[in-house]
Amino acid sequence: MTPAASPLVQVKDLSVFFDAGRVGFWGRKRLTVHAVEGVSFDVYAGETLGLVGESGSGKSTTGRAVLRRVPATRGSIHFQGRDITHIDREQVRALSKHMQLIFQDPFASLNPRLKIFDIVAEPLFVHGLVKNMRDAAEAVAMLLERVGLPPDAGARYPHAFSGGQRQRVGIARALALKPRFIVADEPVSALDVSIRAQVVNLLQDLQVEFGLTYLFIAHDLAVVRHISHRIAIMYAGKIVELADRDLIYDSPVHPYTKALLSAVPIPDPPVQRARKRIICAGEPPNPMDPPLGCRFQSRCPHVMHRCRWEEPPLTERAPGQRAACWL
Ligand SMILES: Nc1ncnc2c1ncn2[C@@H]1O[C@H](COP(=O)(O)OP(=O)(O)OP(=O)(O)O)[C@@H](O)[C@H]1O
Ligand SMILES: [Mg+2]
Is the whole-model pTM more than 0.90? Predict the structure, then answer.
């Protein structure tokens, strides 16, 4: 499917801070985790926006804020043109019909005491989409078949399935309400490498079939290449580069994108051997005390005086490519 021209989701200047308690004499200093700061992006109907960055960079927090599972400290979130930043709990619940989350760990996210049928049917009953068990059985059977699970899967418990199959259950449950937008938070990271491609392919097929829009979170660039139309790279709570997929892989601008890319294996052994791995030494910044200037300064091989004092804005470098770097 070619992505449509109007954004389904618009995120403007989003910041999410968490209160991390107090320290110091009489607890006078308040600690704040700057999980996400000043993040803006659009997700267009029918597209997959990949969101990539290392652990702790704020990817899940961004995804959860978009779904209104954590409150935004600043900024706004629009869904289908409607401002959903401050809607109440009841409205968030109603919205969950259109926006769903697929989790990283399919085992932790499925209630071990419920049969697969109940897990998948629950949202259907909660949102009043089915009225009786017969309708539910029909709907669940269709969903399970569509995600590639055996017909008798509904009668079994989560522990009876492999990791890949459990993720298929998670996908069936997310699909049950026929949402338009899905945040897939590292949906294949916990899976065996050999079955990752199967699950990614399934998500891609479902996107075409149901006209889905994805925010697809991952921590390496290898996983999102196949499925993403555009990719946003996050570092320490900020988007440092956002570009069309091919531009990210063929001509990355930000030094952090280049480092991430150098870690992606190339399936051609001579090319792979000839390639240099970019290792960014140094520590990422403390999320409770982010530095002035560029957040990548402590690890950037090209750091300049200006990077320590002035924060680089996300600016256009080529049509379809923006990066936040003073180089
Ligand atoms: N509820 C919370 N309370 C306090 N701090 C939090 C909370 N949730 C997340 N954080 C902090 O916010 C930052 C971003 O976390 P987040 O989970 O969004 O990162 P991530 O990019 O998804 O990482 P990972 O790849 O490990 O899943 C981290 O420093 C994390 O410790
Ligand atoms: Mg995460």
Answer: yes
